[in-house]
Design goal:
Blueprint lengths: L12 H4 L4 H6 L2 E4 L4 E4 L2 E10 L7 E9 L3 E5 L3 H11 L7 E6 L2 E2 L6 H8 L2 E4 L11 H6 L11 H13 L16 H13 L5 E5 L10 H15 L2 E6 L2 H7 L2 E5 L6 E3 L12
Length: 277
């Protein structure tokens, strides 16, 4: 497990001046520690006025979401079906019925053809049970696939890159030559995570990833993923119903109000324990 340690620090200059912390984060703003200046970081992902019917109880609505470069955000309140729709909207795989999605400043509605869409998708790393792993191939072969389809065996340079990924996502060396079908669920999740980060995406999208993990491992997994994203300078957006995972993986935790699409700072209040995923 990767070790994580909180960094010391006091309230930001903007907070001291009375700016609401949630609004500052929503704007993707940071403060210059030397000069006390508010700096707005360009957004890598923006959703505004979104409505998308997916044959659920109600359409998926997101009034406003702005994710700055390198920012880590968790969204509580998206069930598995809604999370899949959210990922498809974010990557331009589907278009909203209303509203606009922008990736690195460009509307997904401006995507012109398949090649253009693939170039957009390449900016994302997606961690999802929907991401296909080749069960009969080994961990290293699966991790080599983002780099080449020549994997039986991978060339030495590609194997070295795959091994680096395996170490980064905390897969023990003893698992590297095992077929993915023989792995426990948590290890298979780590292979998916390694595949997602292989090509240095600008944005990591996590789709209900903690449901396969034991409850005593959830916080550690979230901290590991957050640390990897931070080292790589990637933004991260986690769709989840797991409050413990949300707070471990993200600096900003939002809760979706399904009827209005508003994203509110902080978790929902529950009478009973949070759901998994």
């Amino acid at each position: 497990m990767l070790g994580c340690r909180a960094l010391p620090g006091g309230p930001s200059r903007a907070a001291t001046l009375g700016a609401p912390a949630g609004r500052i984060a929503a704007l993707g703003a940071t403060t210059d520690l030397h000069h006390g200046l508010l700096v707005v970081t360009p957004a890598v992902l923006e959703l505004n006025g979104i409505s998308k019917d997916y044959r659920g109880l109600r359409p998926l609505r997101i009034a406003e979401l702005r994710v700055a470069a390198g920012e880590h955000v968790a969204i509580l309140g998206l069930d598995r079906a809604a999370a899949e729709v959210f990922v498809n909207l974010a990557t331009g795989a589907t278009l909203p019925d209303a509203g606009q999605v922008r990736v690195l400043g460009r509307p997904t509605s401006a995507i012109t053809d398949g090649a253009d869409w693939l170039a957009t998708v390449d900016r994302f790393g997606i961690v999802s049970s929907r991401a296909v792993l080749l069960d009969r191939l080994t961990v290293i072969q699966n991790l080599a696939m983002p780099f080449t389809l020549d994997i039986e065996p991978p060339p030495d340079d590609v194997r070295a890159r795959a091994e680096t990924l395996a170490r980064e996502v905390c897969l023990p060396e003893s698992s590297w030559t095992r077929p993915v079908a023989a792995l426990e669920a948590t290890a298979a999740l780590r292979v998916r995570f390694g595949r997602a980060i292989a090509l240095d995406p600008a944005v990591l999208l996590l789709e209900h990833v903690s449901g396969v993990v034991g409850r005593d491992e959830v916080a550690g997994l979230g901290a590991e993923m957050r640390a990897v994203a931070a080292r790589r300078g990637a933004a991260l957006v986690a769709a989840t119903t797991d409050e413990a995972f949300a707070h471990a993986v993200a600096a900003r935790v939002l809760t979706l109000e399904p009827a209005t699409g508003r994203l509110k700072e902080g978790p929902r209040r529950r009478w009973f324990g949070g759901g998994l995923g």
